[in-house]
Amino acid sequence: MFCCLKNCLNGVLPAQAVHITKTSNPVQLDSSHMGHEVVIIKNGLRACGTGGVLANAPLVQSKSYFEVKLQQSGHWSIGLATQQTDLNQSVGGKDKESWCLNSNHLVLHGGEVIYRLDASKPGQQQGGQNSPGHGSASLETSPSSTTTVPVDLSVPGSAPVFPATGNAGSSAADRGLPQEGDTIGVAYDHVELNFYLNGKNLNVPVLNVRGHVHPCMFVDDGAILDIVLDNFAYGPPPGFERILIEQSLL
Question: Low complexity bias: where (predicted)?
């Protein structure tokens, strides 16, 4: 745990004086909605330790976008969750209140696998729904692609594979799998939740997201995640924008 905290702080603040200060952007990670062993630093933008944390603003606008930088590898989950999710778990998507892409390349909800990214099994796209926005990482346009198949959440244990088709010698990132240093984009329009890897749509649209959801991140085993709420590395898909607090929408 000490090692993780030392890396997490990374020269930002000494371990004995960790404080969260407000930034010009009122949206940040919420210290009142986080797991008991989560540490939030860097003005409320960095999470490490063990457990989950929500952002302090629900996604109330029609099209929201945020990014998460994978600062250090470990076990992590990124996605959306309601305030009823269990933030003392180390994995997101294990309950009915969270929808997450995980470091083991699974998209989970309610403890069930909705999608699985797999770089080792080449295949062909079998249909599915692409979100608007960045160019989709399809087989026709990019070697760093995944295929997509819609999954019925009522069928337990359904776990379609979305094989990426990079060369055998290419890196995990080149083949469509997240790794340390990458940026995960999250776009939500109240119809679909979509994930992006370094600006490319992973083609794993998640439907039936319900409730007042917030951005969420889960960390464990040394993972360090930074939420990016403006000045994006890759930018939102067309029509999407940074998270707005509810008052600004009136």
Answer: 141-153
